[in-house]
Amino acid sequence: MNSLRLKLKAKSGPEPSTSKPFEFDPCESAKKGKSFDLGHGSEVFHVPRFLPADRSWAWFDYINKHIPWSRPTLRIFGRHLVQPRDSCYIAADGLPAISYNGHTPRAYSWDDFPPLKDILDTVHKALPGSRFNSLVLNRYDGNNDYVSWHSDDEVLYGLTPEIASVTFGCEREFLLRKKPSKMSPASNDEPKSKRLRKSHDPDQHSFVLKHGSLLVMRGYTQRDWLHSVPKRAKPMSIRINLTFRRVLP
Ligand SMILES: O=C(O)CCC(=O)C(=O)O
Ligand SMILES: [Fe+2]
């Protein structure tokens, strides 16, 4: 989405409420999704049009305005760097704290942000069996904001966590890259340059995450793959991303 979309929206009547019930069946919507087998027990499930666009804009506006965003200083390879995006952390009471890059985010309560509970309910309905209890919110304020290559492989999430990612606002590219294999299996013996000349490198994937989309990482994706949302040269408007996770109690 671009700034033109935001300008048009600002002119068009009252904002849709975040609390009104809405005609939308998350289970039906999830049926339009596609699964991608990354091999060796890793999987990505992608629903490009998961949520209705007007509902997604109402949630975008609420989250953009009401979440206590911060840009903490992180310690990366011994250097202190300001995180290149805004973030916030929500967690159920009594869960162990999470830490990344020397930073332990304050855990806000779900009760303080009722629309986040509505989004959580929607995601739970779409993904039978899921029981998320925590949420990391990221806000990318333009093309220079990013998240670098990482995996969400904290012990607190277990070995095969399901992580559900919902996007609002400007679409951005979400990249996946296989971690270097310690075993060096036969398929990795071929030089990279040669493999890249083939039509598709099976060790790299790219998804365009649109406004109202859902992307779920499952199985061994955190153990075996890295993911990132890279900087871009082209100017871009705000993107908000929510990743729902389950911290093991
Ligand atoms: O913004 C995204 O799509 C990904 C965010 C992410 O990877 C994270 O919060 O761990
Ligand atoms: Fe992540």
Automatic annotation (TrEMBL):
<dbReference type="InterPro" id="IPR037151">
    <property type="entry name" value="AlkB-like_sf"/>
</dbReference>
<feature type="region of interest" description="Disordered">
    <location>
        <begin position="1"/>
        <end position="24"/>
    </location>
</feature>
<feature type="binding site">
    <location>
        <position position="227"/>
    </location>
    <ligand>
        <name>2-oxoglutarate</name>
    </ligand>
</feature>
<dbReference type="GO" id="GO:0008198">
    <property type="term" value="F:ferrous iron binding"/>
</dbReference>
<dbReference type="Pfam" id="PF13532">
    <property type="entry name" value="2OG-FeII_Oxy_2"/>
</dbReference>
<comment type="similarity">
    <text>Belongs to the alkB family.</text>
</comment>
<feature type="region of interest" description="Disordered">
    <location>
        <begin position="179"/>
        <end position="202"/>
    </location>
</feature>
<feature type="domain" description="Fe2OG dioxygenase">
    <location>
        <begin position="131"/>
        <end position="248"/>
    </location>
</feature>
<dbReference type="InterPro" id="IPR005123">
    <property type="entry name" value="Oxoglu/Fe-dep_dioxygenase_dom"/>
</dbReference>
<dbReference type="GO" id="GO:0051747">
    <property type="term" value="F:cytosine C-5 DNA demethylase activity"/>
</dbReference>
<dbReference type="InterPro" id="IPR027450">
    <property type="entry name" value="AlkB-like"/>
</dbReference>
<feature type="binding site">
    <location>
        <begin position="77"/>
        <end position="79"/>
    </location>
    <ligand>
        <name>substrate</name>
    </ligand>
</feature>
<dbReference type="InterPro" id="IPR032852">
    <property type="entry name" value="ALKBH2"/>
</dbReference>
<feature type="binding site">
    <location>
        <position position="153"/>
    </location>
    <ligand>
        <name>substrate</name>
    </ligand>
</feature>
<feature type="compositionally biased region" description="Basic and acidic residues">
    <location>
        <begin position="189"/>
        <end position="202"/>
    </location>
</feature>
<feature type="binding site">
    <location>
        <position position="150"/>
    </location>
    <ligand>
        <name>2-oxoglutarate</name>
    </ligand>
</feature>
<dbReference type="GO" id="GO:0006307">
    <property type="term" value="P:DNA alkylation repair"/>
</dbReference>
<feature type="binding site">
    <location>
        <position position="138"/>
    </location>
    <ligand>
        <name>2-oxoglutarate</name>
    </ligand>
</feature>
<protein>
    <submittedName>
        <fullName>DNA oxidative demethylase ALKBH2-like</fullName>
    </submittedName>
</protein>
<feature type="binding site">
    <location>
        <position position="245"/>
    </location>
    <ligand>
        <name>2-oxoglutarate</name>
    </ligand>
</feature>
<feature type="binding site">
    <location>
        <position position="243"/>
    </location>
    <ligand>
        <name>2-oxoglutarate</name>
    </ligand>
</feature>
<feature type="binding site">
    <location>
        <position position="239"/>
    </location>
    <ligand>
        <name>2-oxoglutarate</name>
    </ligand>
</feature>
<feature type="compositionally biased region" description="Basic residues">
    <location>
        <begin position="1"/>
        <end position="10"/>
    </location>
</feature>
<dbReference type="GO" id="GO:0035516">
    <property type="term" value="F:broad specificity oxidative DNA demethylase activity"/>
</dbReference>
<feature type="binding site">
    <location>
        <position position="140"/>
    </location>
    <ligand>
        <name>2-oxoglutarate</name>
    </ligand>
</feature>
